[in-house]
# Entry
Amino acid sequence: MIESTPILMAVDLQKSFRVSSTLHSNRLLRAVDGVSLQLMTGETLGIAGESGCGKSTLAKIAAGIMTPDSGELFYKGELLSKLGKSEWKNFRVNTQMIFQDPFSSLNPRMKIGDSISEPLKIAGASLTQQQIELRRIMDAVGLSANTADRFPDEFSGGQRQRIVIARALIASPEIVIADEPVSSLDISIQAQIINLLMQMKKDFALSMIFISHNLMVLRHICDRIIIMYLGAIVEVGRAEDILNSCKHPYTEALIAAIPGLQTNNLNSNKQLKGDLPTTNSVTSGCRFHPRCPYTMDKCRNEIPLLTESKTGHAVACHLSCI
Ligand SMILES: Nc1ncnc2c1ncn2[C@@H]1O[C@H](COP(=O)(O)OP(=O)(O)OP(=O)(O)O)[C@@H](O)[C@H]1O
Ligand SMILES: [Mg+2]
# Structure
């Protein structure tokens, strides 16, 4: 059940990376540029957007494994940067991440049973408790407990992602942040793993952030969807509103690009043109204006603010204010 209190809240997060380029040595790339969001208790919040728009950077900041340059994160209303040592450990145990690639997420020299139990060990559980929980979680994700002594290379990609999911869930976290958890898997396995994650979400009453390029997957599993473009949120709303009545031209273009999706008001003119620029190259106005089919003068000069309607659907676009 979704409650109306945010379990996790981000306010105006900023994160830049120093990158070398041929033209300017050490230029700053704004990977996350003023992102605020709320993850409600029990909610599945989707994040979509093109490669490089800052989804993984945002996910790592939200999970507490990357520090933002500025902005604040609140866990159950408490400022993360002010948590004491034991409260911080509690947050880290309660917030787990699942990464895209199950091959690099597992230590190849560690037995999978030891990998899965690691978070419990960190949380200070006894050996007996670790063994009981290991059996329980391996069973829950569809892995035989007899395989706990094997090494990752004895498993397929889909099975490895089950191992990663078991590790993320063994310490009964409250929040799971899944960063493209199926995109490295065979299409035939993807639905199985998504269904497993959704079952786990229900059984463990998780609050979840789910990152994916695939808007159709997000529509299926998310309560709300955030659309990111060049480090910022351009639209956020209930999943059905994003898919059926989106308001931002960028979201419109993402939906128009979904193969086989026929809708009345979308056509090929709305598909994205041009390459994704960098945040640094759009120096004024709306960051989407160089690629937008509806650009007006105002869009070149004024940054549109993310403005929320009464239904909670928010969009950063001058067009929707006309
Ligand atoms: N450690 C880093 N050092 C330098 N640049 C980085 C670093 N991590 C990310 N970036 C850059 O920051 C931007 C955002 O990257 P990020 O990985 O968050 O994007 P993404 O939306 O997750 O992309 P993808 O869909 O490909 O996973 C990109 O331009 C990326 O190259
Ligand atoms: Mg990423």
Summary: The chain has one domain: 6-321. Residues 187-203 form the longest helix (17 residues).
